[in-house]
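User: Hi! I'm working on a homework problem where we have to compare a predicted structure to a textbook description. Could you give me the structure for the chain below?
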Amino acid sequence: MSIDVLSIFPDYLAPLGLSLVGKAVADGVIALRVHDLRDWATDRHRTVDDTPYGGGAGMVMRPDVWGRALDDVLGGQDLTRTVLVVPTPAGVPFTQAVASELAHADRLVLACGRYEGIDQRFVDEAATRMTVRELSIGDYVLAGGEVAALVVVEAVARLLPGVLGNPESAATDSFGTASVGLVEHPQYTRPPDYRGHTVPPVLLSGHHAAVARWRRDESLRRTAQRRPELIEQLDPTELDAADRAVLDEQRWCRRQS
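Assistant: Happy to help. Predicted structure tokens:
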């Protein structure tokens, strides 16, 4: 996969050279380039923003600067499997399912806005040539899109073949294909006793079916307690008797609290 990130603070993206993403770049799994948007400004002050039409607080990033930058980065290539990602609090929620969709693209370009955001005409025009996804990583506002870009790149990168040492990790994580709609169960490692807190005995039993059942039950309990809205979205036909027993137990506990 090819990934380009455009920002007025390219150094903000330095963490992409670390950990799994950095290794994937070194191994050639990902071709990653970070660009300074100001390189496409045309005045001596390298201006990328201006006052908003209609008045109001703050500044808006100019569409002409962004347009020149995008055109040069794309270099006239086939855009069939290119996705422009624009992080914005006004976007649709970025989820594991969206990350999985983006992982099937050949190329991602991430446009990191600042100030009051990017002139909407840049996004609208780009959408006539390629797929555009305006995405939000949560219901809060950041100073710019760089943090969101880091989130998107890491979430997508770990789904690419050859990035994770054990591909099963992605399937068993929260929201993974092995636990669709659920958060992950608790994890434990050595020592077996930590300050009086012991590992659940089932995990030491060597009984694989019992361990799998325990993990499933704990995942259901944790999701019901922390993300009850996800439980409401589960398909009842995909729940077995043991699943329903756990969820009934959680409903009873909520009624008593």
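For your comparison, note the following. The chain has a mean pLDDT of 93. The CA atoms of residues 171 and 177 lie 5 Å apart. Good luck with the assignment!
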